[in-house]
Amino acid sequence: MKNNVNHEKNDKHEQILRAAIKTFARKGFYNTRISDIAKEANVADGTIYLYFRNKDILLVSLFEESMNQIIHMVQERLAEIDDPIEQLRTFIKFHFELIKKDKFLAEVISVELRQSNKFIKEYKNIKFKEYLNIISGIIRNAQAKGLVAKHLMPGILKRMVFGALDELTLIWVLAGDSKYSIEKLSSDATEVLMNGIAIKK
Amino acid sequence: MKNNVNHEKNDKHEQILRAAIKTFARKGFYNTRISDIAKEANVADGTIYLYFRNKDILLVSLFEESMNQIIHMVQERLAEIDDPIEQLRTFIKFHFELIKKDKFLAEVISVELRQSNKFIKEYKNIKFKEYLNIISGIIRNAQAKGLVAKHLMPGILKRMVFGALDELTLIWVLAGDSKYSIEKLSSDATEVLMNGIAIKK
DNA sequence: CAATATTGAATGAATCGTCATTCATTTTGA
DNA sequence: TCAAAATGAATGACGATTCATTCAATATTG
C-alpha cells in the first residue's frame, strides 16, 4: 500500500491549510503554535515553511484561497437570477449554506479577519472587498430598478448586511448551537434585511 | 489593597487604561508590548502590574469598566422614553454618539472583543451580554405592543442590530471620517433597521 | 537488470530574539 | 522616619524560524 502515494491526496499544501483552519478555529491565530498545526497536519514543523513563507502568510493564504472559491460559487448562483431582490435573498441563503458546510472556516473568517486585515502588513484584503462588492452591486442594480431607495448608500448597506450575517455566523459557530437553527437564523435574517432594504410595494 | 476596582479616583489606574486603549487601538492587543503601554502612560513597566494582574486582565478590565459606563448611560437615556420603537431609534443614535466621542475605545471593542471573548479564559463577558440584552429587551416590549412581528426572535434580532452597527463602527474608525460621516451612517442604519424590524403601519 | 548516483522533499532539534513578569532597590510624601 | 508606591534591569520561558541531515524516489550507468 505504500507504493506510489503521489497520485493519492498527498497534497501537503491543502493538508496544511485544513489543519491550520481547524487549529486557528480552536485556539485562535495568536495562540496557535506552528507546531500545533504541524501535529494536526501530520507533518514536521519545518515542512510548513516549504509551503508558506511564515505564519502570517499562512493565515493570509487561507483567507485568499477560501474567498476565491466562495466568490466563484456565489457569482455562479447569482448569475441565474435576474431580479436584484431575489439575488439578495439568494445571497443571504447562500451565506448560511456556506457556514453550515464549513464551520471551522466560518469561525476563522469571522473571528480573525478583522485582526489580520488591520495588523498583517502583507495583507491588502482585496478578496474580501470583492466579496462585499457583490452585495453593493446587487443593491445598485436594485436602485436602478426603483426597488431600493436611492438615498441609501450601497457602501453602507453592504456593510450592514455583512455585519448582520457575520454576527449571526458568530453565535452559531461559537455556541454550537442548539439554541437557533441555521434555518431560523437564515429566515429571520432574510426577513429583516429584505424588509429593511427593499421598498415595500 | 492596591490592586482592584473601587479606588475610583486613582490617577494611575485611569492613566494606564487610557494608554492601553490608545495603544491597543493602534497596534492590536497581541502586537502591543507592556512596555509600549508603559511608555504611553509615562510609567515604568512594573507599575502596570501594581494595577493589573497581567496583560489579559488589563484588556478585560478595559472592557468591563467601559461597558459599565456605556450601559449606565444608555439605560439613562432609554428610561426617558416609553415607546419601544423610539427607544430602538435612540439606541442606534446613542451608539454613533459614543463612537464619535471615543474613537480609540470603539476601535478596541470592535476589533478585539471577539478574540478576547473566545480566548481569554478569565473573561466571561457578562457586561457585553448585558449590553446586547438591552436591545432584546426593547424588542420584547415592542412585540408585546404589537409593534414587531412576534415570530422574529429577540435573541437573533439583537445580534443583527449589533452586528450591523458594529460593522459600520469599523468602517468609520478604520477609514477615518473621510468617506461616510457619522451622521450618514447613523441615518442609513436607523432607516434600514427600523424598516426591517418594526411593523409598517 | 542491478548497482550506484542524484535530487529534492521532509524532518525536527537547535538557535536566537522577544517579551511578560518579577523583585531588589529607590523615591515619595505623610 | 518609614511604609507605600514606583522603578526598570534581570530573568526565564516560549516559540517562530532555520538548516544540517535523512530518506525515498527516480535517473544513470555498465
Question: What does this molecule look like?
Answer:
- Two copies of one chain form a homodimer.
- The first copy, chain A, is an all-alpha fold and 201 residues long.
- The first copy, chain A, has two domains: 7-52, Homeodomain-like (Arc Repressor Mutant, subunit A), CATH 1.10.10.60; 60-197, Orthogonal Bundle (Tetracycline Repressor, domain 2), CATH 1.10.357.10.
- In chain A, 74% of the residues lie in helices and 0% in strands.
- Chain A has nine helices and no strands.
- In chain A, helix 4 crosses helix 5.
- The first copy, chain A, is elongated and about 60 Å long.
- The A-B interface holds A 27-28, 30-31, 110-111, 114-115, 118-119, 149, 152-153, 155-157, 159-168, 170-171, 174, 179-180, 184-185, 188-189, 191-197, 200 and B 27-28, 30-31, 110-111, 114-115, 118-119, 149, 152-153, 155-157, 159-168, 170-171, 174, 179-180, 184-185, 188-189, 191-197, 200.
- Chain A binds a DNA duplex (30 and 30 nucleotides) through helix 2 and helix 3.
